[in-house]
Design goal:
Length: 208
């Protein structure tokens, strides 16, 4: 009787697993989250590259790849340049949406097991401001792009302006030159609301 019960339990489990897999396979967003999360979990450049092949070449996939590569290999200038090239240029564009929400869980309405894999993406998203600061120290020729993005970066959760201090301190003249290149209106907003290059003083702090 016990063996029969175990057999029935196994059959039920297998049926549920097959059904769940079939349902999730109809939700491309769920599978995308899983593939993106695999990149965020990668521990070596080789594993990251293998995961990237499955994740495709979307903007979000490129962003996760560059950011995670820089975490794995902090001196990787190619990854640094890639990350800075991916900085959004439009406050309301899809690129900005990706920076603010790497997992994009709404694409997986079933809320299946793939949603549970979003944690590494959440962690990587939290680290993006720090990684951008590290990137521009490796690739200072991208300083203007880095400073320009600050006006879009200010959110209750982001510490982008806090991370800017180490960049300002290490590459002060380049940082000041980049700030001076901002359009007058943008520069006024930057130095009064986000970050003042004089003394490398952060103004916009995340909510605690």
């Amino acid at each position: 009787m016990k063996d029969l019960w175990s057999l029935k339990s196994w059959v039920i489990f297998a049926a549920c697993f097959t059904l769940c897999g079939a349902l999730l396979s109809q939700e491309p967003g769920c599978l995308e989250i899983s593939r993106m999360a695999a990149m965020a979990r990668a521990k070596t450049p080789a594993a990251l590259k293998a995961s990237k092949e499955k994740a495709g070449d979307s903007y979000r996939a490129q962003l996760i790849f560059a950011a995670r590569m820089l975490e794995i290999d902090p001196r990787n200038k190619t990854a640094a340049e890639s990350l800075l090239n991916l900085l959004p240029k439009d406050e309301f564009g899809p690129e900005q949406t990706a920076w603010l929400d790497l997992a994009q869980l709404e694409q997986c309405p079933s809320g299946g097991p793939y949603v549970g894999e979003s944690k590494p993406l959440d962690v990587l998203e939290y680290h993006l401001p720090r990684l951008a600061a590290r990137a521009v120290l490796l690739a200072p020729d991208k300083m203007f792009d880095y400073v320009s993005y600050a006006q879009f970066s200010v959110t209750p959760e982001s510490d982008y302006a806090v991370q800017m201090r180490k960049v300002c301190m290490a590459r002060h003249q380049q940082f000041v030159d980049a700030a001076n290149r901002l359009p007058p209106k943008d520069k006024s907003w930057f130095v009064s609301k986000i970050f003042n290059p004089d003394g490398c003083r952060t103004i916009a702090f995340p909510e605690q």
